[in-house]
Structure formats: C-alpha cells, structure tokens
Specification:
Elements: E1 4-7, H1 11-23, E2 27-32, E3 47-50, H2 57-61, H3 64-73, E4 78-80, H4 90-98, E5 102-103, H5 108-114, H6 117-126, H7 141-147, E6 155-159, E7 168-171, H8 177-192, E8 197-201, E9 207-215, E10 221-233, E11 236-242, H9 249-265, E12 270-278, E13 284-290, H10 297-304, H11 308-316, E14 336-343, E15 345-346, E16 352-353, E17 356-357, E18 360-362, E19 369-373, E20 380-381, E21 388-396, H12 399-412, E22 414-416, H13 422-430, H14 432-435, H15 458-467, E23 470-472, E24 481-483, E25 492-493, E26 496-497
Parallel strand pairs: 1-2, 1-4, 2-3, 4-5
Antiparallel strand pairs: 6-7, 6-8, 9-10, 9-12, 10-11, 11-14, 12-13, 14-21, 15-16, 17-20, 18-22, 19-21, 23-24, 25-26
Length: about 500
C-alpha cells in the first residue's frame, strides 16, 4: 500500500478519498487554490499545499505540472484524481508515470481510448457489444451532414471529448442538424479544447443503465452490478438508483456481462463504469465508458458493502482482486439505494446556480442515511466550481423503503443563504412513477411541474415544523423549555411524528 497519496481534487470527493486512505493507513496530501483556502477538504488531509495563483482557482486544479511537483515535494508516491478536473486526462497519468508516481486509475493508453467516444464505440463493436449507428468524428458541419444521410431521426450530436452533457445536442429534424453540429462543436472546443463531434442514432425514451466494474492489473475483471441513472436534466444525472428497478434478470445478466467483456477487451484496470441505453423493447446499446470513480458510486457501495475508493487505491498499489477477496461469486447485492444530489441551484429559475454564504446548515440522519459533502455553516458558495453541496444516499431493504427514507431525509435539510434544489427533489420523490421505479431519461422533461415546486408536501411540512424547534434558555437552575414555531404542536406517537 502507498505511504502517502496526493488527492488532485476538492470538495466531497477529496474528503471521500482521504477517509478511504486513512482506513488503509496511508498519509494524505490536499491541494487548494487561494479561493479554496477555507474549504473543508484541506482540513481533512495530513498536509495541504496552496497551488495556482489568486483569481484562477479552476486553472489551479488543472495544472498537471504543479500537481506533480507538489506530489513529489510532499513525498507522495501516488496521485488520486477523483472525478471531474483531470480524472480522465491522459496527460496527468503520463506525467505521474514519468515522475515515478502512481496514477490511481487506468493506463494512459486506456484513458486516451475511452476519452474519444468514437474510438470507444469502435472498441465496443470489436468486443461484440451492441452499438448505435453513428458517423465518423469531424469538426466540419457539411461533412457530418452528408455522413448522417443514412441515419433516422432523432439523432444526437456528441462531442468526441469530455462529458457532463456538454457538447451534446438532440436533433429532431434533418433541417436542424447543421446548426446543432456547429453549436455542439463550439461548446466542445470551449469546454474540452477539441471541436470534433459525431452524429449518433438516438434511442427514443430510453433508460440509462450503467455497470460498475473493478479490474486489477493482472487482467481480472468483475462487475458490481448496475445503477439506473435515467433521472436526468439536460444530460446531467439528478437521482441514481441501485439496483436498476424493474430490470428483467436476463437483461441485467447480459448488460453486466457486456460491461466485463468491454473492460477486458481494452485492458482496463482500476474502477470504471460502462454505460448503456436500454430501449422500450428491452434492447441495450453501449454508449461510453467513464474511466474513473462516479459521483453516484455511493449507491453501489451501499448495496454491495464494498468501498470502491479503497479498492481503487489497493488495485493501483498492486493488489489483485482475489487478494482483496473480490471474486464475482462473492458479489451479492442486498437491498436498494438511491442518491439525491443536493445543489445550490434554483429549479424555478432554469436551475441557475446560486452563490453566497451559507447561514444555516442542518442535515438529516438516522437509519439508512449517508451524507457525502464538504460544506458547513459560514461556507462561501462561489461561482467557480460545481454547485453540488452534498450527496444524500438512502438505502433500505427495497426501493420503497429507500424512497421513504429519502423523502424524510430531504425534508430534514435546513439550508439557508443560498437557493437549493430541495423543493424539486421533494416533488420528484413524491411522484408515483418515480416511487414505482418507472423512469426514463425524459422523466423530468415530461413533468415540468417539478421545476416550479416550492412548498413541501403536508407530511413534509409537519416534519419540518417538528424539526424546527427552538430551545429557550431559562434562568440558572431551571430546565430549558422547547418552543415549537407553529401553533399546532406535532403529535408524537410510538412511530414518531404523526
């Protein structure tokens, strides 16, 4: 195992990595730009170092040379990238190798392949996986329009590089294709430095299913079953569930087998996710692979009881899956889990990110509740970084129990000073189709009323009233009195709040 690891990231995923490293007996190094000097993640590491120059906080986390320099100066023997920033960048992996550091992730060649969506699709085809019809990549709209002549509409225009829904356009009519290609290409160049895009056949009203895999450096690959990430807005995931509800066993087995076959075919190692679309007939197609830890990895951890970040570190240090006790026959999912992303976005205002200082921050707890975050009262939400405050993961013996706990947990949140998506999540969790697990990638699009939800349900109001109690201190010697904010006190019975 490594003696010391530098985490080239911030926020909740950095804290997540520090915790895993601590349990493995590994020292940790945090990095932060001037604007992140008060960030919680720098306090969770054994050492922390300021990087970059004031006024350019994002650039600081993207500077390969400085991250490698700090890692060597601190005596680290590995670099953990998390997700986002440089997590899929082959330049960081190559620089680590050249500096005698271990990059906690797949080899450079694999990052180059998976980072090019068209090459990844070609590799999936070679491995025998079902794929969608698509064009070769290009930055020339005329060339792509001509190449897409044989495709049926709707189609997607997709950036070759990057992810997170950027550089992606859904096109319903052929007459709109050229304009969509130009727009996606401009966005791709701005976001990823590569204007190349390709046109791909769209799947109408699909489910988005992804399979978590682990692979060691000897070539052994296992899967940790699947997640349903269909609840999305503008190609950004909002709520994820594991296992995928209402998925026939035969379909699940084939999708998981295909994910393992793809990882083996490309020589993958470490943790990764193979992503598929599932159509209304139950047919699946490969779309891409994410060669890193996913934001939603927590739901897989909850149903398998496997620490994925610790597994990444152990694999990168040279341990085999067998030595870790991870063999396919021993991976048995239990119960269900779902994750909600609590963000500083205003759903009623086009999910516009909000900024400001958090003046109140109270979080839920209790059975089946897990929180992964990196914020506190007084923290400043800046416009520089992602708007996610905390990840709420709820588990139960089945999906209904997990959803019920999520409803209760979301109602317990108290966040003031910035707008959040909590009302939106409350409305979503109350939707009967969501509760039943009947979701597709158009779920939110088909329910615009979710975006304008403001008031919680009656049950949520009662819970919030109960939780908003105020303790009034009495003179010395007298017991404090609890005062409730509403005139009607909550009724407390054997089962809790009535």
């Amino acid at each position: 195992m490594f003696s010391k690891v530098l985490v080239a990231n911030r926020g909740e995923i950095a804290i997540r990595a520090f915790r895993a490293a601590y349990e493995l007996g590994t020292k940790t190094v945090a990095v932060f730009p001037y604007e992140d000097r008060n960030s919680v993640h720098r306090l969770k590491a054994d050492e922390s170092y300021q990087i970059g120059e004031a006024g350019h906080p994002v650039r600081a986390y993207l500077t390969v040379e400085e991250l490698v320099r700090i890692a060597r100066a601190a005596g680290a023997d590995a670099v953990y990238p998390g997700y986002g920033f440089l997590s899929e960048n082959p330049d960081l992996a190559a620089a680590c190798e050249a500096a005698g550091l271990v990059f906690v992730g797949p080899p450079t060649a694999v990052l180059e392949l998976t980072g090019d969506k068209s090459r990844a699709v070609a590799a999936a085809r070679e491995a025998g996986l079902p794929v969608l019809a698509s064009t070769a990549p290009s930055a020339d709209p005329d060339e792509l329009v001509a190449a897409a002549a044989g495709l049926e509409f709707p189609v997607f225009v997709k950036a070759v590089a990057g992810g997170g829904g950027r550089g992606v356009r859904r096109v319903e009519r052929r007459t709109e294709l050229a304009e969509a290609i130009s727009a996606a290409s401009r966005e791709a160049e701005s976001a990823f430095g590569d204007p190349s895009v390709f046109v791909e056949q769209a799947v109408v009203n699909p489910r988005h299913i992804e399979v978590q895999i682990l692979a060691d450096t000897s070539g052994e690959v296992i899967h940790l079953y699947e997640r349903d990430c269909s609840v999305q807005r503008r190609h950004q995931k909002v709520v994820e569930m594991a296992p995928a509800p209402n998925l026939p066993a035969a379909v699940r087995d084939q999708i998981c087998a295909d994910a393992v076959a793809f990882a083996r075919h490309i020589g993958y190692s470490c943790a990764g996710t193979v992503e598929f679309l599932l159509d209304e007939r139950g047919q699946h197609v490969f779309i891409e692979m994410n060669p890193r830890i996913q934001v939603e990895h927590t739901v897989t951890e909850e149903i398998t009881d496997i620490d994925l970040v610790a597994a990444q570190l152990r694999i990168a240090s040279g341990e085999s899956l067998a030595a870790m006790g991870l063999t396919q026959d021993r991976i048995v999912p239990r119960g269900a889990a779902l994750q909600c992303r609590i963000t500083t976005e205003d759903p009623a205002n086009g999910f516009r990110p909000d900024t400001g200082r958090i003046t109140a921050y109270r979080t839920p707890g209790g059975a089946g509740i897990r929180l992964d975050g990196g914020t506190s009262v007084g923290a400043e939400v800046s416009p520089h970084f992602d708007s996610m405050l905390v990840k709420l993961t709820c588990r139960g013996r089945d999906l209904a129990t997990a959803v019920a706990r999520a409803k209760r947990a979301v109602a317990e949140f108290r966040i003031r000073g910035v707008a959040t998506n909590v009302p939106f999540l409350q409305a979503l969790l109350e939707d009967p189709d969501f509760e039943a697990g009947h979701v597709t990638t158009s779920f939110i699009e088909q329910r615009p009323e979710l975006l304008t939800a403001r008031a919680p349900s009656d049950r949520g109001t009662r819970i919030l009233s109960y939780l908003a109690e105020v303790t009034v201190n009495k003179p010395h010697g007298e017991r404090p009195t609890t005062v409730y904010p509403s005139e009607k006190l909550p009724v407390i019975g054997a089962a809790g709040v009535a």
